[in-house]
Automatic annotation (TrEMBL):
Pathway: Glycerolipid metabolism; Lipid metabolism; glycerolipid metabolism. The keyword Transferase applies. Residues 265-350 form the DAGKc domain. GO terms for molecular function: ATP binding; ATP-dependent diacylglycerol kinase activity; zinc ion binding. GO terms for cellular component: plasma membrane. Its EC number is 2.7.1.107. This is diacylglycerol kinase (ATP). Belongs to the eukaryotic diacylglycerol kinase family.
Length: 350
């Protein structure tokens, strides 16, 4: 079989958490590794029931974990882009689709959670098995976009219901009326903040004893399970409404594989470019936060393909705003790309 991806990574050994260089090959649903590419005997890891997660919130050393029912591998890449490429390739094995970096589009990993390992200061519950996460600080995996929580053993069984990006990802939840389609709420169960109040009956909701009650990922409204059906079904998109492209507006793909947005829903959407290397790797936190606030399809990492992809998605809008989080170089890079595509009449840059 041909390799989907291969290359060198650091692998953590069991003794005193030391790292050793190993050569990895991903073929089919198996990951092989050995001392170098010319080795005759390779160790193998079966990925048919595995999940992949970033190692921590800050993740300064670009490490990630492969969790299988029988073992856990901690690996470390040279830079963030290399780590993300490996994680995407490993995830594609789970989606049972051939993965090609060149053909990447928003649809490919639609609905899949982006895990990272973290701890929580208060009791937190797994959205898969509904049991509490173990340890005093509740260790487990959290999705960086939708905050779905899971035990490391449960992550592989999590439903692919991460924050929607396009019309296709909404599926059967879509609301259709005489005016066309409307944006429904996307509810996530449990793990509500301490001060949570129900939008229907104005009483306290959520619990630290079990997984209960609901929160919308878009407008952040919280409701009791009993009150959920009484709440208005159309989502108003919350405080960031002006800046958000709702998933119902991203519905068709151009012949060259780029999404095309319908403008009727969007006032003046915000396109966000973050340089994940800027500010001592603080950029990664910004990427996560913006994906939680906006449609994940509006947020781009400049270290992952540059500004061209994002500007192509937005070029049909009459007016839009761009936010660049990075240094002078990042801003210059985006400005020169705007000049190339001749978009300076329709966008403002901050």
């Amino acid at each position: 079989k041909t390799s989907i991806k291969e290359g060198q990574l650091l692998k953590q050994t069991s003794s005193f958490q030391r790292w050793k260089k190993r050569y990895f090959k991903l073929r089919g649903r198996t990951l092989y590794y050995a001392k170098d590419s010319k080795s005759l005997i390779f160790d193998e890891v079966d990925l048919s029931d595995a999940s992949v997660a970033e190692a921590s919130t800050k993740n300064a050393n670009n490490s990630f974990t492969i969790i299988t029912p029988f073992r856990r591998l901690m690996l470390c890449a040279e830079n963030r882009k290399e780590m993300e490429d490996w994680m995407s390739s490993l995830k594609s094995v789970q989606t049972r689709e051939p993965y090609e970096v060149a053909q990447f589009n928003v649809e490919h990993f639609s609905g899949m959670h982006n895990w990272y390992a973290c701890s929580h200061a208060r009791p937190t519950f797994c959205n898969v098995c509904r049991e509490s996460l173990s340890g005093v600080t509740s260790h487990g995996l959290s999705c960086e976009v939708c905050k779905f929580k899971a035990h490391k053993r449960c992550a592989v069984r999590a439903t692919n219901n991460c924050k929607w990006t396009t019309l296709a990802s909404i599926g059967k939840d879509i609301i259709e009326d005489e005016d066309g389609v409307a944006m429904p709420h996307q509810w996530l169960e449990g793990n509500l903040p301490v001060s949570a109040k129900c939008a229907v009956c104005d009483k306290t909701c959520g619990s630290v004893l079990r997984l209960q009650d609901w929160k919308c990922l878009w407008c952040k409204t919280m409701v009791h399970t009993a009150c959920k059906d009484l709440y208005h079904p159309v989502c108003p998109l919350g405080q960031c409404k002006v800046s958000v492209i709702p998933p119902i507006a991203l519905n068709s793909t151009d012949s060259d594989g780029f999404c095309r947005a319908t403008f009727s829903f969007c006032v003046s959407p915000l396109l966000v470019f973050v340089n994940s290397k800027s500010g001592d790797n603080q950029g990664v936190k910004f990427l996560r936060r913006f994906k939680q606030l906006l449609n994940p399809a509006q947020v781009f990492d400049l270290m992952n393909g540059g500004p061209h992809l994002g500007l192509r998605l937005f070029q049909k809008f009459d007016n839009f705003r761009i936010l660049v989080c990075g240094g002078d170089g990042s801003v210059g890079w985006v400005l020169s790309e705007i000049d190339k595509l001749n978009l300076n009449k329709q966008c403002q840059l901050g």
